[in-house]
Every structure is written in structure tokens, then in C-alpha cells.
Specification:
The structure is a homodimer of 396-residue chains.
Chain A (H helix, E strand, L loop, with lengths): L5 H13 L29 H9 L19 H9 L8 H8 L1 H11 L6 E3 L3 H10 L4 E5 L9 E4 L6 H8 L5 E5 L2 E2 L1 E9 L5 E3 L3 E6 L2 E7 L6 H17 L4 E10 L8 E8 L9 H4 L4 H9 L13 E8 L10 H4 L6 E4 L9 E9 L2 H16 L13 E2 L1
Antiparallel strand pairs in A: 1-4, 2-3, 2-4, 5-15, 6-7, 6-8, 6-10, 8-9, 9-12, 10-11, 12-14, 13-14
Helix pairs in contact in A: 2-3, 4-5
């Protein structure tokens, strides 16, 4: 696996249970995954030799059975060289391209008939001005590459608000696209896994709550979701998985858009990730098979596990960097709630950084949300303890 | 933690989640835990310097916050030296003595009024002959130290059947005790955890099914258990935990004995273990808090988690060494059942050795037993696939 963050870290319990030897390319000797993976060579995902060494197992071997990733920041040229070693790359470079390049993704999804917000490539200010006219004067401009957690995304109502990006693009930086600023009721996510054989299993559709462009809370399943919309969401995600020939876990983030003037409600695909995803952390404690185990099974072409929830509701709250310097100091307080499931990533604290999550699983949704929020707030620091605003809905 | 077997291996997910750094003294560089623990110095539990180095963290530190164990094979002198470093030992040497020495255990449990089979120290053949007379001609002779998985236990009806053990005892080997051969309906186990502060939480009483002196299957909770007996079992285990001042996980194995002549049914304590135990492996998938996480919480004096089951029934089947040479070869077959939870220990295959376990969690007990058995049989080897005898009850 390439990448030594929390996703690789959370892969370890599943690998241990299944007797799968996990070798992880980590960015440094003390990153989240390096703390818990025995075979963790240090290297850079963009350095072909580092990745090839990972796959070959250094001088001692054995050669890996498969290469997979916890992020998309790896070049197609590197992946091609891995494939030349005879080692499958899952998801493939062809699939991964659509998770790396939002322009390519929008083009392909539109071809596949997957519902998307209106969008257009915007090579220059004139193109953006034309698009703004077309969608009512307000749009979301995105860099086609390199964005995450709200970075590389800007809501604009005039072309000059992304002048710096146009300049960067002209100098070889990422191309830009514009999307309509969808007015949505809430955000949903579909998480599924797919094997090379085509076997596909999806977890229930979840609601994701964002604050400041970062996922704050996930509720599984999405409360009160219209069954027709649920089917539409699962259908869209399945079409993406099959159309892009994804193997491993795929997360499809969507907007739930209320119909106006008698039109039915609908879902529009926002973003994709071809790896375990924050919207699926609840599955560790809340589903029969976690997204981490399912990803391992999928990329190893093993039969997929049952994605059913273990209880009516699961709520996951992210723990972000705030006032507390050492999160484990909060364990004596947060574990007082005997039902909370706590997951810390062993990362240095930086403001706003994802440092862990807390999951509450059970029967009473309001109670679970309060507990998960309280647990996350305690871990973040007492100063943050009172702040959940619980706002719903919005507009990108 | 001292000991590099499957119990230390299965401790790693809980340590990772809680952000607890686990340092494990392993018997060799490739044992079960060494494969998945980054900080795993090789050494011998009986070598004081190896254990002290473990606690000190070698030359680099940091000093451990607490020392705990996955087995009882560590000397009181070594533990005393750890305590002199200012590092708590949990469970303490005083408590651990009763898990190491069955004579001391029987004496103390009898003092505490915990129900036990009739028993006597048997220093020589004459003493054993007298005990046999007293209990109807049949007894279980045990070595006070060093037994596990049916080793160090022999059912006899004449003193000369343990002549070799008497000889060994005379030459400084372990002392012997004899216990009445209890006719029992089935075997039960109580698993609980206790903090230094005294907080104590127990999982539901389980039924353990033994084959050839080795645990074959665990059913949680014990089917059809009379509530009065359940209370008696929990009460006995609580008395043991408090009477011996145990910290961490305690497993108390018991016999369920049917009353004769109008007497009520009762439980008698058979064995103790002061660590996570095979009878609690079901808790990984079947309980809100696993025995491994609970042990970590308890020895770190953190609040204990909820031991409630996640579903009405959990069945765990052990995978023992048999005809299959590489267990992971069976994954494509065993994972076809999407509900099975598979746990492999990464150990070399030897006949009868515990190599892994399979858990099924759900609503239909008979179905879960069949699935768990089928999964374990597949992992053991196809030749074993047809053999579960399902026998219940018996006599040691």
C-alpha cells in the first residue's frame, strides 16, 4: 500500500485478522501508519524507485501480490512500471485517473449518464464568465488536480476571483473546471467495494455533515432518505464503479437536491475517491465488514464480506486539531461513556487536521449524535466542548 | 506486554485505535505478535534483563506506563524488579501467583468460599490413594505449575498412573494436586475485567466446548442457562477477581453440575487465567468492547467499555493445525460466507496447534454454529471438513 496516513493505519487490524502481510510506503518513520506497520519502508509515492522497491520488498522480497493506495497522489508512469513487474495495481491507473483529475472525471461521468451538477471546463476568464452567465451568476471553481478537504475549491461570482489559479494554470498548473453552485438539502455518500471479478457490495447510503469544507459527522444510514433517492444514489455509484472499472473501495459523494416546481428530488455526484474514505469510518464499529477489510478483500480478489449495519444507527464524529496537545490525555474522560468507540491516528496536532474519530452505534439517533459529538469535543480540547452547531443543509 | 503469541497479536487493533503504544517482548522475530508489532524486542520472559529492557524501552525509552502479560510464565523475582523501577505490574505478582500455581489457587479459592470441586494436595502415592478412596475411585491429577491445553492434567483411578509425576516432583518438579472428577453437564466460562480502582465489568457467561482437552467452540451467551446459575457463575468470578485483587481481564472456567436428589444445579470453578482468554475471542466481533481493548483499558486504569453483546448469539470456532499447510490458501473458500469473521494468527502449522479462529454473530444459533464450524474446518483443511461431532456434556 502506498501512503502512511490514517487510512493505511486503520487497514492494519483487517490485515492482521486475515493473515495478510501489509507492506506500506510511508512518508516518514513516525507517520500514522509507520507506528503500527512492521514492514514500512520510507519513501515518496512519486519516486518510481521507492514504489518499485515497495512492490519488490526491497532486496529480501517477497514480491507483493497486489499494489493499492490510501491516496491518489501517484503517477501513471510509476503504476505502469509496477504493472511491468507483473504485479496488479488496484484500482488500476486507468480507473485512478478519474479520481486524480476532476475534468476527466466529469467528462467520463457525463458520458456514462451519471447525474452531475452542470459543469464546464474553464480554460480562461472568458469561459468562466460565460459559465457564470449560464448558471445564474454563481459557480464553484475547482482545480482539476490536487484538491482535498476544501482545498482547490472556491465559490465565485466573478472570474477575477480565481485569477491566481488561471495564472498558475497558464504556467503548467492544474486546469480548472466550473460547476454550478448546487442548492442542496444535504450531502450524501455511497461507499461500495468491487472485485476484479465484478462482485460489488455497497454499504447503506450515509449522510455526511461538513463544516468549513471538512467532514465533521457521518450518519449511517442517512436519516429519512426517500427509498427512490436511495436507489438513485446506489444506482449512480454502481454506474461509476462499473463504468470506470474500479476495484477496491469507492466513495461517491453526492448532493441531495430537492425538486422544485413538481420535479422529483434527485442526487448529483460531487466527488469520488477510490480508497477507504472518511464517510466509511463508521463501518469499523457499525458494519459487519469494515471498509478497510472490504478494500483488502477486493484488491486481493477475495469474496466480499457482508456490509450490513450491526445496529439501526451509527454516528461518526471527526476529531480535528484544536486546543489539546496530546489526545490520549483525554482518554480518561472520553471513555467514561462506555459505548463510545474511539480511534486515534497518532498524528501530531495541527489546527483543523483530522486526528481521529469517535463512533457511537445503537438505537437512538439523537442520543448517539450527542454522544459522538461530546466524545469528539472532549478529544479536541475542552475549549471546543460547547460548539456543535448542528446546522443542516447549505450551498457549496 | 510479555509474550508474542496470538493474544498479544490480537491486542494490536485496540492499541492502535486508542493511540496506545504497545511494546511486546517476543520469543522470536517471526512469532505471531512480532509480525504486527513495530516495537517488539526479542527476549525470554524468564530473563530479568530482557523484561527490564522491555519496560525501560531499551536505551532509547520511553519507560513503559505499565507491564502486562499474555501468559503467566514469568517469575515473581522479575516482576519485583520491574516494580522497583516504579512501573506498575498488572495483574500484580501477588495475583498472578494464583494463575501460576494451582495448589495456591485452590487453597485461596477455598478460603474465599468460591465453589470448587473437592480437592487435596497429593504429595505422594499414599495421599492420592486416600483421595481416590474419598471421591469414589476416580480423580483428576494436575501438576500445580506448567499445564495448559490439557497438558499437566491426567484422569486416574490408581496412584501409579502418575508415578512419573511423583518422581518429577521429588526431583524438584511441580507439586501435584488431585481433584474430584466432576460429572458435569457442560463447561462455562466467565470473563470479566477489573481496574485498579475496582471497577469491574463482566461479559455474558459463555459455554465452552472442549475436544481432546482443547477448546473447540465457544457459544455466547451459554444457551438456556438458568438465571440463578448465571448469577452464581458471575458471583463466583467476581469473588475471585476481588479476592485475588486481579487487574486486567480474568477468565474463570467452570463446570455446570446438575443437582441430584433434589439439590439445585451449581457451578464449580475449574481453572483461572489472568489475561485475555480463548473463551473471550468472540468479543472481538460479538461484543461492543473486545476483551483485548478491555484488558488494555483495565491495566492502564482507563474507564472500562461496554461488554454487551452486539447480537443475540456469537459462536467462535477454533482453527487447529491439521492437513492444510498455509491457512491463507483457504481464504477464497471460507470468505464465501460473507458473515464469517476470520482471524488468523500467522503461526506455523503444527497438528493441534491453535492457528486462528472464526466467529459468526447473529440471530439463529444452530445456523451460526454450522457456519462457524464449516469455516474453521475449511481453514484447517478439507480432510477435516466433515468431522464435527457436536457432542455435549462429559466428564473430565
Amino acid at each position: 500500500m502506498v501512503g502512511g496516513g490514517q487510512l493505511a493505519r486503520m487497514m492494519t487490524p483487517a490485515a492482521t485478522a486475515l493473515g495478510v502481510r501489509l507492506r506500506v510506503l510511508v512518508e516518514g518513520p513516525t507517520v500514522a501508519a509507520a507506528q503500527v506497520v512492521v514492514d514500512a519502508p520510507v519513501g515518496a509515492p512519486r519516486q518510481a524507485e521507492d514504489v518499485l522497491d515497495l512492490v519488490r520488498g526491497g532486496d529480501d522480497g517477497p514480491m507483493a501480490d497486489v499494489l493499492t493506495f490510501e491516496h491518489e497522489h501517484i503517477g501513471a508512469d510509476v503504476l505502469e512500471r509496477v504493472r511491468e513487474l507483473g504485479v496488479p495495481v488496484r484500482p488500476s491507473a486507468e480507473a485512478l485517473r478519474y479520481a486524480q483529475d476532476k475534468l476527466a472525471m466529469r467528462e467520463r461521468l457525463t458520458e456514462l449518464g451519471v447525474p452531475c451538477p452542470r459543469w464546464a471546463p474553464v480554460p480562461d476568464a472568458a469561459a468562466l464568465a460565460a459559465f457564470l452567465d449560464q448558471v445564474g451568476g454563481r459557480a464553484v471553481v475547482k482545480t482539476s488536480r490536487g484538491g482535498y478537504d476544501g482545498k482547490g475549491v472556491r465559490v465565485v461570482d466573478a472570474p477575477d476571483q480565481v485569477d491566481d489559479w488561471f495564472e498558475a494554470a497558464a504556467q503548467g498548473g492544474p486546469a480548472l473546471l466550473a460547476e454550478e453552485a448546487v442548492g442542496f438539502a444535504r450531502e450524501l455518500a455511497v461507499l461500495l467495494a468491487r472485485r476484479p471479478s465484478g462482485e460489488l457490495r455497497a454499504w447503506p447510503v450515509v449522510e455526511t455533515v461538513q463544516r468549513g469544507g471538512v467532514c465533521s459527522e457521518v450518519i449511517a444510514p442517512a436519516p429519512g432518505l426517500d427509498p427512490a433517492l436511495e436507489r438513485a444514489a446506489l444506482d449512480a455509484a454502481t454506474r461509476v464503479a462499473e463504468g470506470l472499472d474500479v476495484t477496491g473501495v469507492l466513495a461517491v459523494e453526492m448532493f441531495e437536491v430537492l425538486g422544485v416546481g413538481g420535479e422529483p428530488d434527485r442526487v448529483l455526484v460531487n466527488e469520488l475517491a477510490m480508497r477507504p474514505h472518511n464517510s466509511g469510518h463508521w463501518t469499523i464499529d457499525g458494519a459487519v465488514t469494515s471498509q478497510f477489510e472490504q478494500h483488502l478483500r477486493a484488491v486481493l480478489d477475495l469474496p466480499l464480506g457482508d456490509p450490513s449495519p450491526r445496529a439501526p444507527w451509527s454516528v461518526m464524529a471527526n476529531v480535528l486539531g484544536s486546543t489539546r496537545e496530546k489526545l490520549t490525555d483525554a482518554l480518561p474522560y472520553v471513555l467514561v461513556d462506555p459505548h463510545l468507540r474511539v480511534h486515534l491516528y497518532g498524528k501530531d496536532v495541527r489546527p483543523g487536521r483530522k486526528l481521529g474519530h469517535v463512533t457511537a452505534v445503537g438505537h437512538e439517533l439523537a442520543d448517539l449524535r450527542a454522544r459522538a459529538r461530546a466524545g469528539a469535543d472532549l478529544l479536541q480540547g475542552f475549549a471546543e466542548g460547547a460548539a456543535p452547531d448542528g446546522r443542516r443543509g447549505g450551498s457549496v
